[in-house]
Amino acid sequence: MTKIIGHRGARGLAPENTLASFTEALAAGVDEIELDVRVTKDGICVLNHDKFLHDISGRSLRHMRIADCTLDELQSFRQDIALLEDAIELIDRSVPIIVEVKPRVPTAEVIAVIDRFLAKGWQPSDFLLASFSQRTLRQLHAALPGIEKVVNEHFGGFHATWRARRVQAKRLAFNQHNLWWGFIASMAKHGYKIIAYTVNDPAKVAKWEKRGLFAIVTDYPDRFKK
Questions:
Q1: What pLDDT score was predicted for residue 113?
Q2: Structural domain tally of the chain?
Q3: What residues make up the domain containing 172?
Q4: Taking a C-beta distance cutoff of 8 angstroms, is the pair 36, 44 a contact?
Q5: pLDDT tier at 56, thresholds 50, 70, 90
Q6: Proportion of the chain in helix, strand, coil states, percent, rounded to 5
Q7: Is it the case that residue 166 has pLDDT exceeding 70?
Q8: Which of 1, 16, 137, 154 is the most exposed place for a label (fewest CB within 10 A)?
């Protein structure tokens, strides 16, 4: 059965990358939760998709670049900005977390947070590490080789599999608009696990599931009741 991954929690049901969004995703029965990590000027791992802070409506605040702001400065504009460690504590091993590290984000701070949780009893299987940046994935793989990697790919299957081999990954995530059933079936036959993002249509999932689709990332996990 195709896995259901909550997109930034459940961004269709609550503000993305917030504790409220993760709570909604868990209530909807997701198999995994995906979130986006960036690092502040003072070295704190916070959850935000873009380079700039989003307000509660999702509008980008162009004067609030995450990497140039301290956590206190970000919280002065948005109190509900979540920390990576708070999300891990909330989800608390109920489902695996896909930690997407954005390109050019320093990895040392992310690795340190995950190492702390591993030392407290969390297992490597409680996490996956994803990125569109091959450099980022290689750094994460070197530091945390026991945690499964996810290759987020803008381009085609050849480039994705080239990247995957270098970090021992089997999961490949593509925009749904770049996928078709023949490609999904072929990749599944060769042992790759294809993830489609962002899919909110159960009918499309039902069709691709028959071809070997491994997982979808969705804004509305409540539409995909098991």
A1: 98
A2: 1
A3: 3-38+82-223
A4: no
A5: confident
A6: 40, 25, 40
A7: yes
A8: 1
72 inside domain = no
Name the amino acid, one letter, at 116. R
- Token pair for 191: 């042992």
pLDDT for 60: 82
Band of the pLDDT at 225, cuts 50, 70, 90?
Answer: confident
Label residue 226 by pLDDT band (50, 70, 90). Answer: low
> Residue 16 is part of a domain; what is its CATH number?
3.20.20.190
Virtual torsion, Cα 69, 71, 76, 78, nearest 10 deg = 100
Query: Per DSSP, which regions of the chain are E strands?
Result: 3-6, 32-39, 45-47, 52-54, 60-65, 97-101, 127-131, 148-153, 171-175, 193-197, 215-218
The strand pairing partners of 215, in sequence order, are: 3, 195
